[in-house]
Write a structure and sequence with these properties.
Distance between the termini: 28 Å
Number of strands: 9
Number of helices: 5
Radius of gyration: 16 Å
Strand content: 25-35%
InterPro entries: Ysc84_actin-binding (IPR007461)
Protein name: Ysc84 actin-binding domain-containing protein
Helix content: 25-40%
Shape: globular
Pfam family, one: Ysc84
Structural class: alpha+beta
Keywords: Signal
Largest sheet: 9 strands, mixed
Length: 194
């Protein structure tokens, strides 16, 4: 393992532990099926909320989502750190409004990072090839395995036509609205067994 991978894993692990403590998780470790069912239900409710906010603020995104092969939604990606930071979140893949799997995203950041924030990240896989490549991977990294085009939305709420031609289209939103000046490169996505 090289130094960069070590730093990314260490930052991601620390962030996950910190997020669990901040959320008040008890981590009983029962592993009972009911615990997994409750976790899936919580993630699905978050996914519904994130999609509802996106479709409410960008109506043309609903049509795009309906055309997508799959829509991967991370309703709450937490980022925190000081100089070296990281982010993590859990979400679900939706195909024709049905959940087909659960996933985790992690990433590390370097530079002037302070404090923490939460945002939702939505990735729409527009081509069968992009969707299959993602679903068949054991771990998928934005920028290395595929580029993600962040959606550009005009003042009229219509998504830019150049964006519409991309195989993977991303939306990043906070409570203040869509973010256009962010990069998702380096975010690693892996399947959750729940």
């Amino acid at each position: 393992m090289n130094r960069r991978d070590f730093v990314i894993r260490t930052a991601g692990s620390g962030l996950i532990a910190g997020a669990a403590l901040a959320a008040g998780c008890t981590g009983t470790g029962t592993g009972a099926p009911r615990d997994d069912a409750a976790r899936r239900e919580e993630i699905d409710a978050g996914v519904d909320g994130a999609l509802s906010r996106l479709y409410g603020s960008v109506p043309s995104a609903r049509e795009l989502g309906n055309r997508a092969q799959g829509v991967l939604v991370f309703p709450r990606v937490l980022s925190a750190g000081l100089v070296v930071g990281g982010e993590t979140g859990v979400g679900a893949m939706r195909v024709k409004e049905k959940t087909t799997g659960y996933f985790r995203t992690t990433a590390a950041s370097f530079g002037l990072t302070a404090g923490g924030q939460s945002r939702s990240v939505i990735l729409m896989f527009m081509t069968p090839e992009a969707y299959e490549r993602f679903m068949n991977s054991r771990g998928w990294t934005v920028g290395a395995d595929a580029s993600v085009a962040l959606a550009r939305v005009g003042a009229n709420g219509v998504i830019d036509t150049n964006t519409l031609r991309q195989p993977v289209i991303g939306f990043v939103q906070t409570n203040a609205g869509l973010m256009f000046d962010v990069s998702l490169n380096g975010a690693r996505i892996t399947r959750l067994d729940i």
